[in-house]
Amino acid sequence: MAKPRAWYGHDTGLSLRMLMTMTLLALLYAVFVFVLFRAGVAAPYLIVIVGIMLIAQLLFSDRLVLLAAHARVVNQTQAPRLFQAAERLAQMADLPLPKLAVMPTRLPNAFTTGRSPKTAVITVTEGLLNRLNDEELEAVLAHEMTHIKNRDVAVITIASFFAMVASLILQQFLFFGVMAENGRGRRGGQAVMLIWLVSLLVWAISYVLIRMLSRYREYAADRGAAILTGHPGYLVSALSQIERGVRQTPSRDLRQAESFNAFFIFPAVSKQSVMELFSTHPTIDHRIRYLERIQQDMNKFH
Amino acid sequence: MGFFDALFGRTKVAPAKVDQLFQLSTADLDIQTQLSSNFCGRAALVLRAVDNATYDAVEKELHDVLSVGGRDLPVTVESRTDSMGFHWMVYAGQGVDDVINSLHLTAELIQEAGYSDSLLAAVFGFDHQDAARRTDARWYLIYSYRRAAFYPFAPLPGKNRDASREFRIAQTLQPSLTVEKDSERWYALWEPPL
């Protein structure tokens, strides 16, 4: 039997851009590891340490985030509306129903934690539940479900591995410097300087690349939400609701929520002039334009 | 979805598996004899609508096909939308086979049109034979098009489910039907308009 075609196509451009970003990151990291080894730093130890940190992060960070967010895992009777929407979407997406949690904040937002579909938790804020109608809530949940399906938490954590090594070296610069000074004299000092400069460069470039990758994953999740709900318009209207809510909410809530930016469906930054290059999410305008493009492609399907 | 689909963030909804639905046709006898329940005469196809003109055309065409074909098959069809924006095509007919056939015809047409992922589930209502004496007489069999498996749904008042009854139904029908093994995936469909 011929493979049945679907009304939604591919976004090859988006996949290619992700591939490019991931390749650049891999290249950058390869060069970094090469330099570390050539310079004869205790790099293997460093990488082992960061490896342990990475695994710990994959295993435990979700619980920490939920604790820090004061999110409370809810059950069917506590949040029937949330469950009803989530159940149908999980059924559509063929995922086990993720745990659902509510964060007592007026700021409308949502985020997903957990490295795999089995450990995933979707957290929504009270503000989101109050502000969005059923269709908009469904769209936001579909966006988060796509993050789970695409394993975005694991992808970004792994992509950040060597960036973590670099930042560790940067932070430990003084410590390294003193050690080298005592041990190997001036030449050792030069080597340490070189490593520090390379680390700085790797950290800076990977910072931009990881954020670029994160923005592409957001577009992919928006696309997934459009496919799962069948209505790109639901997410458009949810995003504009959330944006309006973020602007209206008092800044005390904003500051509290700001440290969770990377996880949110919409970053809760109070400054309006953040350059997109350095942010984890595309601007709302870009996301809405992207969803409109999906809608136009849908309309062409016969 | 494979590894590379996840890596590149390509969302794909697994195509619907329509064929296992016919298992119900043979299982109906077990339902009558071992569960003392009869097909209530109504079943529904639950669809997630897609927001474009072609999809609307497909649904309209379906209604035309079914209302014309309805003269051959003793089945009538009506369409409803629930509070969550899902479309329900409700089939009414006495014979469970006729209903399965027209439901399957619809599912195939939707699949051919390229909207396979719109098919969420098929729901069949059953009544316990001494319905007069029981308040929880009505129960449902839900066929999931993603999982190609059936599972029971026995709602009680107040959005509760009769878990032990569902378990018994699942155990009884296990030999004749593909029953969803993971009971966490026995998703409820509250207030089915059957």
Protein model, in words:
The complex is a heterodimer of chains A (302) and B (194). In chain A, helix 1 (12-38) packs antiparallel against helix 8 (173-229) and helix 5 packs across helix 9 (232-248). Chain A has eleven helices and four strands; from the N terminus they run H-H-E-H-E-E-E-H-H-H-H-H-H-H-H. A four-stranded mixed sheet of chain A has the order 1-2-4-3, with helices on both faces. Chain A has 302 residues and is mainly α. Chain A has helices spanning 12-38, 43-68, 80-93, 126-131, 134-149, 152-159, 161-171, 173-229, 232-248, 251-258, 284-300, and strands spanning 72-74, 99-103, 110-113, 121-125. The radius of gyration of chain A is 22 Å and the shape is globular. Chain B is an alpha+beta fold. Chain B is built from five helices and eight strands; from the N terminus they run H-H-E-H-E-E-H-E-E-E-E-E-H. In chain B, strand 5 (138-144) and strand 6 (149-153) form a beta hairpin. Chain B is globular and about 50 Å long.
Strand and helix map with partners:
The complex is a heterodimer of chains A (302) and B (194).
Chain A: H1 12-38, H2 43-68, E1 72-74, H3 80-93, E2 99-103, E3 110-113, E4 121-125, H4 126-131, H5 134-149, H6 152-159, H7 161-171, H8 173-229, H9 232-248, H10 251-258, H11 284-300
Parallel strand pairs in A: 2-4
Antiparallel strand pairs in A: 1-2, 3-4
Helix pairs in contact in A: 1-8, 2-7, 3-5, 5-8, 5-9, 7-8, 8-9, 8-11, 9-11
Chain B: H1 3-7, H2 23-34, E1 37-48, H3 53-69, E2 76-81, E3 86-92, H4 96-112, E4 119-128, E5 138-144, E6 149-153, E7 155-156, E8 160-161, H5 163-173
Antiparallel strand pairs in B: 1-3, 1-4, 2-3, 4-5, 5-6, 7-8
Helix pairs in contact in B: 3-4
